[in-house]
Write a structure and sequence with these properties.
With 412 residues, this protein is of the alpha/beta class. The chain has 2 domains: 147 residues, Aspartate Aminotransferase, domain 1, CATH 3.90.1150.10; 224 residues, Aspartate Aminotransferase, domain 2 (3-Layer(aba) Sandwich). 35% of the residues lie in helices and 14% in strands. α5 packs across α6. The longest helix is centred in the C-terminal third of the chain and has 22 residues. The protein is globular. The structure holds pyridoxal-5'-phosphate. Pyridoxal-5'-phosphate binds next to α5 and α6. Pyridoxal-5'-phosphate (PLP) binds next to α5 and α6.
């Protein structure tokens, strides 16, 4: 039995998270299913940025580092992220990009776990994770080796040489979730540390870093956390490791006393030692508004809605696009799936362009994956129904064959 539009309206009417949509700017006529790539704009962000510019920067000038606590932003925002990821406030800080943080934390892990020298990761890990580890390998010239294996071979590849198991929690192509607790325990059992990239998890589901005994983590500020394009990322270091941790980008903001201007680097206590340079205040302010959009949100309810949205999408695709040639690229079981669904189709790029022309914004990942992300704070059940409705029409009319949907842009 096909699910009707009215059924979806009824689900929205009883959705406890429905009011959160008002916290965002969603353009009229747009069905936004790409919050996993760039979160929507919180309604409060423009006014906040204007205030930071006109009042804090324009009038208060350099005094704002103290009077408006600009200097405290990395830790303050970290404390806001902590409950979303199941960490203590003093285990999280905001700085730099995910790529840069991966570098700092992977290098730190090698120091924490010397003389082990292998970094184990998955061949299908997000490319920046692989590239940063390759850069570290090259920099350390022979002192460290990267071991890339298939997803199913990770646990058997853990041996006494592995210093670090570095993984992304939710696969960006397939949406498949790694068993964070089990893999962390396996890493520990072999004497390795674990580093998790939470870019596709933070803000999309409840995480339990402390309960899962996670060592190190980082993640993106501009996806489900709604911090805006290029928003700073976050870092997590378990409290038990903070005292021994040293990272190579030892800039002045990570110094114990930056304003002593001493010649010798001395790491700050706690998470501050993971910082490098001056925080980007405008971007931090935007991220703070993004994080405020989680105020009062129950992460259990958020995850339940995320799973329901994904299931609804797949149910509707199965019912209405059965002969369109789609192949499921994500787990059908929502317990094993992040907040996205992925479909394979040889004409995936053109189909996604045709959808975008119809106001349904998802994205495409080479070679053939259509991705649809469901940010539970602002995606409605009727949005999912409308998205699949338009997809079904595009497939039956084959409107994706239009020449204008074939040309590839730089960003897909
Ligand atoms: C989006 C994403 C990143 C982004 O890294 P940047 O340094 O912000 O470009 C990193 N890792 C994963 C898994 C991602 O999904």
């Amino acid at each position: 039995m096909t699910i009707a539009y009215a059924d979806c309206s009824a689900m929205d009417a009883s959705d406890p998270l429905a009011p959160a949509r008002e916290r965002f700017v969603i353009p009229h006529g747009v069905i936004y299913l790409d919050g996993n790539s760039l979160g929507a704009l919180p309604r409060s962000t423009p006014a906040r940025l204007l205030r930071v510019m006109e009042k804090e920067w324009g009038e208060d000038l350099v005094r704002s580092w103290n009077t408006n606590d600009w200097i405290g932003m990395p830790a303050r925002l970290g404390a806001r992220i902590a409950p979303l990821i199941g960490a203590a406030a003093d285990e999280v800080i905001v700085a730099d990009s995910t790529s840069v943080n991966l570098f700092k934390l992977a290098a730190a892990a090698l120091g924490l776990n010397a003389p082990r020298r292998v970094i184990l990761t998955e061949r299908d890990n997000f490319p920046t994770d692989l590239y940063v580890l390759q850069g570290l390998e090259e920099l350390l010239g022979g002192a460290v080796t990267m071991r890339m294996v298939a997803r199913g071979e990770l646990e058997s590849a853990l041996d006494e040489d592995v210093a670090l198991l570095a993984l992304t929690h939710v696969d960006f192509r397939t949406g498949e979730i790694h068993a964070m607790k089990r893999l962390t325990a396996a890493a520990h059992a072999s004497g390795a540390l674990g580093l998790w990239d939470l870019s596709h998890s933070a803000g999309a589901m409840a995480l339990h870093l402390d309960a899962d005994d996670v060592d190190l983590a980082t993640g993106c500020g501009y996806k489900y956390l709604n911090g805006g394009p290029g928003a700073p990322a976050f870092l997590f270091v378990a409290r038990r490791l903070q005292g021994q941790l040293r990272q190579p980008l030892s800039g002045w903001m990570g110094h114990a006393a930056p304003f002593e201007f001493a010649a010798q680097y001395r790491p700050a206590e706690g998470m501050r030692r993971t910082l490098c340079g001056t925080p980007p205040v405008l971007s931090m302010a935007a991220l703070e508004e993004g994080l405020r959009s989680f105020d009062g949100i129950d992460m259990g309810a958020l995850r339940a809605k995320s799973r329901a949205l994904g299931d609804l999408f797949l149910d509707l695709v199965e019912a209405r696009c059965a002969d369109a040639g789609f192949e499921m690229a994500c787990p059908r079981d929502s317990a094993r799936r992040g907040s996205q669904v992925s479909l394979r189709h040889p004409q995936g790029y053109a189909i996604m362009q045709a959808l975008i022309a119809q106001g349904v914004i998802g994205d495409f990942r080479a070679p053939d994956i259509l991705r649809f992300g469901f940010a539970p704070l602002y995606t409605r059940y009727v949005d999912v129904w409308n998205a699949v409705d338009r997809l079904a029409v595009i497939m039956s009319e084959e409107s994706w064959r239009d020449a204008r949907f074939q040309a590839r842009a730089v960003v897909t």
